[in-house]
Amino acid sequence: MKLPSCAAALMAGVLxxxxxxxxxxxxxxxxxxxxxxxxxxxxxxxxxxIDPRRPDNTLTPGAKASVLLVEQALRDQRFLEAKWVDGxxxxxxxxxxxxxxxxxxxxxxxxxxxxxxxxxxxxxAGRFKVTDVISPGARVSTGGFVVNTRTRNMLAEAKxxxxxxxxxxxxxxxxxxxxxxAGTHDGGGVVDISVKGMNAATxxxxxxxxxxxxxxxxLRNPQQDDWPWHIHATAISDTxxxxxxxxxxGDYYLGLNGLAGRGPDDGPKVTIRTWEEYQRR
Length: 281
Description:
The chain has helices spanning 5-35, 41-50, 64-76, 91-103, 117-123, 149-162, 200-212, 243-253, 275-280; strands spanning 38-40, 129-131, 139-142, 145-148, 168-170, 190-194, 215-220, 230-235. The chain has 9 helices and 8 strands.
C-alpha cells in the first residue's frame, strides 16, 4: 500500500532522527572527551619522583597543571586534604595516590604512589584525559636477569651508543636479592652493571651512555659501602620503581649521588632526559 506523501515524510523524518541519534552518540562522546583537560603523565610522574626530595616547595617545571588536576580528583575522592592541592606532588600526595591505588584493589608495585596508566585513567574518568602515557611493558629476561621491556630497550640503546656490550650483575624485581641495595632492586627499572675489565675511561663512558638514554646512573666503589666496583642505573620515570629507587631519581635531578648520605653527584654531566624525551630529541 502506498502511504500518503505527508505520512511518508513523517516516517522518514522519524527514521532519520533515530539513525542520527544512534550514529551521533559516539561522536558526542568523542567531543566530550576532546573537551576534557589533559593530564600529561610524563610530567606528572616526573614530579612525583622529584618533589618529595626537594628541600623546598619549588614546582617541577611543566607539571603544575597536570598535578593540580590529579590532586583535585584525589581531594574529591577524599584521599587528599584541600590544603595539599597546590601542584606540588610531594610525599603527602604520593601517599594519597598510593591509598587511592589500594582502593582500586591494587597491591605491591601497582600501589607505589607513582601514577600508572590504569590508575590514572580511572582517576580521570569524566574529569580529564591522560596524554603522554608511560608504560614499563612486560617483564622479560636479558643477560640472565629479569627487567621490563622499557629497561631492556634503554640498555640496548646505551650499548648501541657505546658500540660495545656490557654485563649485568643484578636485574630488577629482585626483592631481598642483595641487602646492600637497600630495596632499590625490589621493583622495575633498576640494574647493576659489571665493570670487570673496564678502565676508568670506559667506566665513565658507560655511565654517560646510560645517562644519555634516561637512566640515573653512577659508578659505585667499595669506599661507599660493602660492595664491589659496579655501575648502578635506575630508569627515570619507570612506573614500577620501588620507593628507594624513586628517591634516587629525585636526588639525581637535584644534583645528588643517590646514596643515603645524599652527597653531590659524582658522575659525568649530561642533560637529564627520560627515555621518552631521548626518543623525541
